[in-house]
Amino acid sequence: MIPNTMKAMVLTGHGDLDKLQYKEVPTPSPAHGEVLVQVTATAKNNTDRKAREGLYPTKKGETTSFQMGGKPTLIFPRIQGADIAGRVVDVGAGVDRSRIGERGLLDFNIYADSRRDINLTPDYYGHGADGGYAEYVAVPSDQFHAVPNADLDDAQLAAMGMCSYQTAMHMLTSARITAGERVLVTGASGGVGTALIQLCRIMGAVPYALSTMDKAAALTELGAESVLDRADMDSFVERVKTQTGGKPFDAVMDLVGGEMTDRFIDAMIFDMNTRETYPRLSIAGASGGNVSEILWTRIYLYQVQIFGVSHGTREEAEQLVDWIRSGQLKPVLHGAFPLSELHQAERYFMNRGSNYLGKIVIVPDSQWEEHGKPWSLERNP
Questions:
Q1: The Enoyl reductase (ER) domain covers which part of the protein (predicted)?
Q2: Mapping DSSP to helix (H, G, I), strand (E, B) and coil, where does residue 372 land?
């Protein structure tokens, strides 16, 4: 029986955590071409906080969420949560009822058209439409991909969600990363960073991680060639030379921004005679600051290619799901919180302590015993 109402964490406007309210709301019904998913786990992403706080400006001084399609799509009230795992419990018209019972993972994008190779006006579930911080969600049937792997818990599957992995893949494909290339991964301990390390290895590239040294062993085990300490950026280029045998990075996957971006460029251009390709910088985050001061002469004289990355394409999502099904990608799950404790999860997420690596997932309270409790983190009010 599908209830008429459900529990959800509802975002009521831009602002602090008080704008997130746990309440009873109507259960959605699947429209034509959609499936109704009973949510078992949804991974947290930094975009949840940034959208809530209005930190996606496209003009100076702006406080808003992004609207590349020309008009705002984050309309309140909104249920956030992009990386959704769960089970199909109902289908809309045009969808085969044999899909009921299917366990799967959502391709989180709201695509503007049917193109498979490009996504020019990215939006996503949890932003332009309701997402997974609820007991149920209605999503396009062709974007809810079956992942029956018995060795993956639902919480682990959510931790492999497209918001992180597809962003990571699009960073690499935009920069045309090839086998054997040396790639610096910044923000390496987060969801996109850990995805980048794994994807580099699948593609045959060699990932170097920038992180704190308490994460070094875990990042090395995940696939990082070596870990560079982000606490000491003054000697960064010299330490890069030591780790790479004196060779510059072929490309940088930048999730940090701020004043560090200039240092990352340094690490690609210190010996142009040894390079075989142009220096490439993919940017998909700005955790270290939204403004970087860079001399444009450094960009054009050294021919640094810069790629701004937001989300990805249908083709990339389908490739990632294939790699998940085949076991080539592994979950990096830090722990779980119940949906009713999303405020605590947000605070925990923003105050990352020692040994924080990978993803936090949010599990509906009604699903907690089965899908959340095995991954429970110690929680403080």
A1: 15-362
A2: helix
Residues 6+ apart with CB under 8 A from 358: 159, 189, 190, 191, 194, 331, 332, 333, 334
Look at strands 144-146 and 227-229 and give their pairing.
unpaired
DSSP code per residue over 128-192: TB--SSBSEEEEEGGGEEE---TTS-HHHHHTT-HHHHHHHHHHHHHTT--TT-EEEESSTTSHH
Both tokens assigned to 44: 């947290």
Q: Which two tokens stand for residue 364?
A: 């509906």
Residues 343-375 pLDDT 10s: 999 999 888 665 678 899 999 999 999 999 999
Where the chain has pLDDT below 50, the residues are: 380-381
Q: What is the pLDDT of residues 164-206, one digit of tens each?
A: 999 999 999 999 999 999 999 999 998 999 999 999 999 999 9
C-alpha neighbours within 13 Å on the C-beta side of residue 47: 27
Q: How far apart are CA 264 and CA 267, in angstroms?
A: 5
Among 97, 202, 83, smallest CA distance to 143 is for 83
Considering the entire predicted model, what is its pTM? Answer: 0.93
Residue that has been written with the tokens 């403080």 in this structure? 380
For 15, 34, 170, the CA distances from 253, given in Å and listed in that order, are 30, 35, 10
**φ, ψ (nearest 5 deg) of residue 40:** -110, -25
Tell me which H or E stretch contains 89. strand 83-91
Residue 228's CB is within 10 A of a number of other CB atoms, namely 25
Mean per-residue pLDDT over the chain, rounded: 93
Dist. CA 82–CA 131, nearest whole Å:
6
d(CA 89, CA 18): 32
C-alpha span between 194 and 210 (Å, rounded): 11
Of 50, 27, 154, nearest to 102 by C-alpha is 154
Quickly tell me which residue has 């390709």 as its tokens: 277
How many Cβ atoms sit within 10 Å of the Cβ of residue 52?
22
Q: Decide if 338 contacts 375 (C-beta within 8 A).
A: no
Using omega within 30 degrees of 0 as the cis cutoff, is the peptide bond preceding 364 cis?
no
